[in-house]
Description:
With 109 residues, the protein is mainly beta. Helices cover 11% and strands 38% of the residues.
Amino acid sequence: MGEQMMGVVLWADAQDSRAVIWCEDQGNLAYYSETEEAIHDGVALDAGDLIQFDCREEKDMRRVRNPKRIMLGHAPELPAMLRARLPKRRAKKPADVIRISDFLTRRAS
């Protein structure tokens, strides 16, 4: 059993039922890959969705289990914002920090 966590989907492939999630604890990214037998029962994730999930460490990698979508399209701009902050070349000073907590607190009323 893993710990319960919240996160925002950064990238998702609906056809292959895979996704990459930015976790609320600012740790390593977590990876979701639906098992073959559960592919039709799982939740369809899309970039920007806010999800709650069980997070497990497996072979030096965080894995998402039992994802539950909390909010569809919670932060659709997040993947583009992160891509825009990628340095064209090595920066001499650290870039501004984006924290997932900024996106977790923006809940719809």
